[in-house]
Write a structure and sequence with these properties.
With about 450 residues, the chain is of the alpha/beta class. It has helices at about 30-35, 90-105, 115-120, 125-140, 140-150, 155-180, 190-220, 235-240, 285-300, 315-325, 365-380, 395-415, 420-435, 445-450, and strands at about 5-10, 15-25, 35-40, 50-60, 60-70, 85-90, 110, 220-225, 260-265, 270-275, 300-310, 330-335, 355. The chain has a seven-stranded mixed β-sheet. It has a six-stranded mixed β-sheet with strand order 9-10-8-11-12-13, with helices on both faces. Strand 1 (about 5-10) and strand 2 form a beta hairpin.
């Protein structure tokens, strides 16, 4: 497959020790041959693939930089095309200068994600693996990274391919039987097909259900800290962040607006919002903060309700308990180092929520909070040997479409419909799964997916 030659800076546009300029396409070797000179003055050696050569990038007689050049012949490269990588000094100006020289001698600037797009179009990876590339780059925690690497290795592709093979076999069998009823009988086929569909439907259900964990891994847990004024919310925020980001005083109502931070606990990403203390107040500014806190709580994935355990519960606590009813929350009895007026056995505290004694001041109980978070969102440890977690809305939608199509097949079997009805819905499921790997999607969607990639990848 001959294509034009593209080039881009593959490393971050910031000063660093090393910068990489990537070239790919039919004239990649021709371009590097025009601008590279070996240390001893010789030309680049293109006889062997996967070699590293030392020399200079030059524009005519002007030496631009001292570099290492990697030669990778297609199809054994990232794009499955002839590919060159130039390792240069990592100054922003230097990388731009070398890229300009590469373009001057025959390449064109790559579009965002175009290298990975070529890998997909050339059959080196499928679309689920291509999407895993950007997920690896954007991973915010170890769980998201492991999940993305699992997909990059083709775990998702293997599951989808196995399901599609089973579905297409049944479609072919039905079509063959309808074309040649004398030799292929469909008597009792509906019951037999229903048994075969059962494990497929369960597999799709499991994959769809994994999207909840996948969303948490990729986007983080939207977490809101609630409590009365001076309960220790800001102190807890500072402990979780690891530095004093929130103002902490003995004056109730110090926090009047929200403070947001992204933190990691035991590999879990939390997008934490510290809110104004919830209480009845005549202060106009504080009241706005209280209303905003309630709005954030309504949209949260998790609420950390901080109680000043050194004081009895009051009507403000009752309001907060009503606010978090039916939500995912953890109750934190703060100031446990003092004489506690509120305990885990307090009858006002709902049994549905975990209750943990902590001292934000003395950094006590935080480890138990971390363990509770992991158990709450990931049921303990996540495993990645054979597990797949859907972190992509497009993939989840395709799985839901496939699931709905197979359920329609089951409905047709139950209604004793003709076998060609089975075939229609089986084909819908087959094509929906093909959307995940990119076998049944249009060019516009492909372009949209790769437009979200960073430049040089």
């Amino acid at each position: 497959m001959k294509t034009d030659t593209i080039a881009a800076i593959a490393t971050a546009m910031t000063s660093s020790g090393i910068g990489i300029i990537r070239i790919s396409g039919g004239q990649a070797f021709e371009v590097i041959g025009k601008i590279f000179k070996k240390k001893n003055g010789g030309k680049i050696d293109l006889s062997r693939s996967h070699t590293v050569q030392y020399g200079y990038i030059c524009d005519q007689d002007e030496v631009i930089d001292e570099v290492l050049v990697l030669i990778m012949k297609g199809p054994h490269s990232y794009t499955a095309e002839d590919t060159v990588e130039i390792d240069c000094h990592g100054g922003v100006l230097m990388m731009k200068k070398i890229l300009e020289t590469v373009i001057q001698y025959g390449a064109r600037p790559a579009e965002p994600g175009e290298f990975t797009k070529r890998a997909f179009l050339n059959g080196r990876i499928d679309l689920s693996q291509a999407e895993a590339v950007i997920d690896v780059i954007n991973a915010q925690n170890e769980y998201a990274l492991k999940s993305s690497v699992s997909q990059l290795k083709g775990k998702m592709s293997e599951k989808v391919k196995a399901l599609r093979e089973k579905i297409i076999y049944e479609i072919a069998y039905i079509e063959s039987a309808l074309d040649d009823p004398e030799h292929i009988s469909l008597d009792g086929y509906g019951e037999e097909l229903a048994k075969k569909l059962e494990p497929m439907v369960k597999e799709l259900e499991r994959l769809i259900a994994s999207a909840d964990n996948g969303k948490v891994m990729s986007e983080g847990v939207k977490t809101v800290i609630l409590g009365k004024p001076n309960a220790g919310k800001s102190s807890l925020m500072n402990v979780l962040v690891g530095e004093e980001r929130a103002i902490v005083t003995d004056i109730a109502g110090t926090t009047r607006d929200t403070l947001e931070e992204h933190i990691r606990l035991r590999g879990i990403s939390l997008n934490v919002v510290d809110t104004a203390g919830i209480r009845d107040t005549e202060d106009v500014v504080e009241k706005i903060g209280v209303d905003r806190a309630k709005e954030y709580a309504d949209k949260a994935d998790l609420i950390l309700y901080v109680i000043d355990a050194s004081r009895p519960l009051d009507e403000n606590d009752a309001e907060i308990l009503h606010l978090i009813k039916g939500k995912r929350a953890i109750i934190l009895l703060n100031k446990s180092d003092l004489d506690m007026q509120v305990t885990k056995e307090q009858e006002e505290l709902p049994e549905e929520f975990p209750v943990i004694e902590i001292s934000a001041k003395n950094v006590q109980g935080i480890e138990e909070l971390e363990d509770t978070l992991k158990e709450m969102f990931f049921q303990g440890e996540l495993t990645f040997n054979d597990e797949i977690y859907i972190t992509n809305v497009r993939q989840k939608t395709a799985l839901q479409d496939a699931y709905a199509a197979l359920e329609r097949v089951n409905d047709s079997i139950a209604a004793d419909m003709p076998e060609d009805f089975y075939s229609i819905d089986l084909m819908d499921a087959y094509e929906a799964l093909g959307n995940i790997t990119g076998e049944t999607i249009g060019e516009d969607l492909v372009n949209e997916i790769f437009s979200k990639f960073c430049m040089g990848k």
